[in-house]
C-alpha cells in the first residue's frame, strides 16, 4: 500500500468516525428533547363551536395526543368525564376540553316538578334556548270585556329550562289561534305555583313567549314591570298594571 492509498484509508476512517459522532449527537438531541417533552397522552379538543348549555358529545369532540407535561390537571382524559354533561359557557372550536368547561345537566330540586309546553318556533326559541338556560315567561291576555285593556304579563321569572325537544308541527284544529305552524316543546323545572301559572297561560293566554335571561344574571324584573298595557304605557311612559 503506497502513501496515497494510506491517506485514502485514513480519510475514509475519519469520515466514518465523524458520521458516527454526528449520528450520536443527533440521537442525543432527540432523546434530550423527548425527555423534556415527556410521554404523549390522550386528550380531547373541540371540533366545532359549542353554545353555552348545549350537550357535549362525540359529534363535537376529537381525540388528540399531547405531551403529558403540557397537559393541565383539568384536561379531560376520559370521555366518561363529560358524558351527559353540557357546556358551562360558550366553547370555541380547537379548545382543549377541560372539566371546568362542563356542568351536569339541570335536575329537579326538592319541591320542583317538570312541566312542558309548546312554544311557537317563530318567536326566536329554536336554537337559542337550551337546557340549563333561564328564561322569563311572558303571556298575553285579551281583556275580558271590550273596555278592558289587553295585557302582557311576566308570569314566571327566571324559569329553568331542563329540556328542549325537536320542532314539531302544531295541530291546527286543536290550536287554530296560533300564527306559527311549528312549535318546540320546552320543559321547565318549577314549583307548584309557577307550574300552575304556566299551565293556565298555555290554556288561556293568546300567546306565550320566552325571553332568554343573560347567563349569570340573578336580578328579577321589578313588580312594576311585570304587567304591561298599552294604555298604561301611553299614560305613564312605562309599564302599567291593568
Automatic annotation (TrEMBL):
Domain SAF: 41-103
InterPro entries membership: Pilus_assmbl_Flp-typ_CpaB, RcpC_dom, SAF
Keywords for this protein: Signal
Cross-referenced SMART domains: SAF
Region (Disordered): 215-242
Pfam families referenced in this protein's UniProt entry, alphabetically: RcpC, SAF
Signal peptide start and end residues: 1-24
NCBIfam families with a match to the protein in the record: pilus_cpaB
Protein name as it appears in the record: Pilus assembly protein CpaB
Lineage, top ranks: Bacteria, Bacillati, Actinomycetota, Actinomycetes, Kitasatosporales
Amino acid at each position: 500500500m503506497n502513501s496515497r492509498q494510506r491517506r485514502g484509508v485514513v480519510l475514509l476512517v475519519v469520515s466514518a468516525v465523524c458520521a458516527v459522532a454526528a449520528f450520536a449527537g443527533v440521537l442525543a438531541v432527540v432523546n434530550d428533547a423527548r425527555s423534556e417533552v415527556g410521554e404523549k397522552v390522550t386528550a380531547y379538543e373541540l371540533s366545532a363551536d359549542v353554545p353555552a348549555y348545549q350537550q357535549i358529545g362525540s359529534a363535537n369532540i376529537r381525540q388528540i395526543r399531547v405531551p403529558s407535561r403540557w397537559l393541565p390537571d383539568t384536561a379531560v382524559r376520559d370521555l366518561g368525564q363529560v358524558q351527559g354533561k353540557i357546556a358551562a359557557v360558550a366553547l370555541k372550536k380547537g379548545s382543549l376540553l377541560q372539566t371546568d368547561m362542563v356542568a351536569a345537566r339541570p335536575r329537579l330540586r326538592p319541591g320542583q316538578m317538570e312541566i312542558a309546553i309548546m312554544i311557537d318556533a317563530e318567536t326566536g326559541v329554536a336554537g337559542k334556548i337550551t337546557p340549563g338556560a333561564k328564561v322569563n315567561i311572558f303571556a298575553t291576555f285579551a281583556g275580558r270585556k271590550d273596555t278592558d285593556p289587553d295585557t302582557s304579563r311576566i308570569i314566571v321569572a327566571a324559569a329553568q329550562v331542563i329540556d328542549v325537544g325537536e320542532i314539531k308541527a302544531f295541530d291546527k284544529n286543536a290550536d287554530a289561534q296560533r300564527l306559527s305552524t311549528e312549535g318546540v316543546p320546552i320543559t321547565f323545572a318549577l314549583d307548584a305555583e309557577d307550574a300552575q301559572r304556566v299551565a293556565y297561560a298555555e290554556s288561556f293566554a293568546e300567546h306565550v313567549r320566552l325571553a332568554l335571561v343573560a347567563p349569570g344574571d340573578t336580578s328579577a324584573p321589578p313588580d312594576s314591570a311585570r304587567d304591561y298595557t298599552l294604555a298604561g304605557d301611553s299614560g305613564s311612559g312605562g309599564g302599567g298594571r291593568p
